[in-house]
Design brief:
About 55% of the residues lie in helices and about 15% in strands. The chain has about 270 residues and is of the alpha+beta class. Strands 2-4-3-1-5-6-7-8 form an eight-stranded mixed sheet, with helices on both faces. It comes from Eiseniibacteriota bacterium.
Length: about 270
């Protein structure tokens, strides 16, 4: 490649990366107190550049004197935003696959919430997205974009909540949307005793790799639907173990496994 063309291409990459960086910083501080500090910092940079171009000796001397402390000042002023950005970066799907451990915070919140809901005979339908996106179903509900917590889940599925009907869809640590509509199971052999929530859980599990947790308001039992199979009457330990097992499955193992069990085995009951 021509050296001139190479330099031109590298300059474009440099400009693009700087633009992306500034855009992400603007998005990061939008709506926070740091937004005004960010604007003030940009003003100082513009003044320093103008002083250099116009040869304003005094202002240029001040700007160059402050140059050594700019990095430290930037880290101090934007410490919360930088910490939040690094946490978000670590939670991306690519890196989270390397960081998963035995202690799943979100799973613990879901288990606690479902246990409380089932004990009070409050129905719940919670979808935990995995590798297959559920955007079509998210768009049928009310957007939340809230951090997952047991208190939030219990509140959403309380009988007085306007969002207690339908499904709640979770993606990693975020509750995306509530009151979402799910497809009912197309399996003609599905047990007739199953209610709408259980058939909706089975229906979505037949179309995606999501794990769907159901709390029954009639019996107070807990079920998990995954890959076309519904496991019923799970206690707290069994629910935690089943969800942990599902979220430890790797994508390549998912492709090797059958998409669903035969229709006659679509409903399983936990022992005990």
């Amino acid at each position: 490649m021509n050296p001139v063309h190479t330099l031109w291409f590298l300059d474009l990459i440099d400009i693009f990366l700087v633009a992306v960086l500034f855009y992400r910083l603007l998005i990061l501080v939008k709506g926070t107190r740091s937004a005004q500090m960010y604007v003030g910092l940009l003003v100082i940079v513009v003044v320093a550049l103008a002083a250099r171009e116009l040869d304003l000796i005094a202002i240029r001397w001040i700007a160059e004197s402050l140059k050594t402390v700019w990095l430290i000042a930037f880290v101090i002023l934007f410490q919360p935003e930088l910490r939040h950005a690094l946490a978000q970066f670590g939670r991306t799907r690519y890196f989270s696959s390397f960081l998963r451990g035995d202690n799943y915070g979100v799973l613990g919140e879901v288990v606690r919430a479902v246990e409380a809901l089932a004990r009070d005979r409050h129905g719940a339908l919670i979808v935990m997205e995995r590798h297959v996106g559920l955007r079509n179903f998210v768009e049928t509900g009310t957007r939340l974009d809230a951090k997952v917590s047991a208190q939030l889940l219990i509140t959403l599925f309380s009988p007085g909540s306007p969002l207690h009907d339908g499904a709640l869809i979770l993606r990693e640590e975020t509750a995306l949307a509530a009151s979402c509509i799910l497809p009912l199971s197309a399996n003609p052999r599905t047990a007739l005793a199953l209610g709408t929530r259980h058939r909706a859980a089975l229906g979505l599990s037949e179309e995606s790799d999501a794990a769907i947790v159901v709390a029954s308001e009639e019996t107070g039992s807990i079920s998990v639907a995954y890959r076309g199979v519904l496991k019923q009457r799970l206690n707290e330990g069994e629910l935690r173990s089943e969800l942990s097992r599902i979220f430890r499955i790797r994508p390549q193992e998912e492709e090797e496994a059958p998409a669903a069990q035969p229709p006659a085995e679509s409903v399983e009951k936990a022992a005990g």
